[in-house]
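Project standup — Tuesday

K.O.: blocked on the structure for the chain from last sprint. Re-posting the sequence here as requested.
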Amino acid sequence: SHDSLCKSLTTLVSHEMENDFMPATALVSLFQQMLTDEDIHSMERDVIAAAMRSPKSSPDSASALNAVLFHPGMHALVAHRLAHRLWLANRQGLAMYIQSTSSRTYSTDIHPAATLGHGIYLNSIGPGVVIGETAVVQHDCTILQGVTLGGTGKEAGKDRHPKIGKGVVLGDSSTVLGNIKIGDGAVITAKSIVNKPVPPLARVSGIPAKVKSYRKIIHPQNNTNTKNNNNINNTTSAS
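H.V.: unblocked you, prediction finished:
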């Protein structure tokens, strides 16, 4: 069931993040208290994204199970969803504690206030991912290792981090700086530095990044047959 998937993920993450200050049982209770139906839906979509987009995986039930059990990026997203709910509930101190513990556990630094959509694939293996406080990442994005969504240090006011559209691919060690918009379906290639808005479906690269070409479709890596999609959905919804 949906509840079983959520419970499995949150229990795994709780045991990975536990310490003398906060045991796993306390973390499990906190997850149960704070997560909403929206968060559960997002976690289900994140599992599907990890199963479909992880290297050497295939969009089937076994890959979905592997995403739940072994994918550190998936677990980092679960921890962030808890931290984000705590932040929105004006429990900023506890939110920052969860973020700090998650950062040490999964090599990610995602501010609790950052907004992440569903269907996110986060690869946190190797160099860590950094996502700033006012960043927004919309649905179905791919975030590979070493990505930074940061500020320039020059923006006035609070809104100083990137706004990432739907289906964007952020390549290894790419950097997006400032309160700029990355259009739906864009691709930021590896090690590029982006400091200006990117049009939808554009493929950009370089330092500073420039448009090199345009894509014809959004997220071709998500194009899978109905049978495989049904296999994954059955894994996450079977009672």
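K.O.: great, moving the ticket to review. The longest strand covers residues 209-214. The chain has seven helices and 15 strands.
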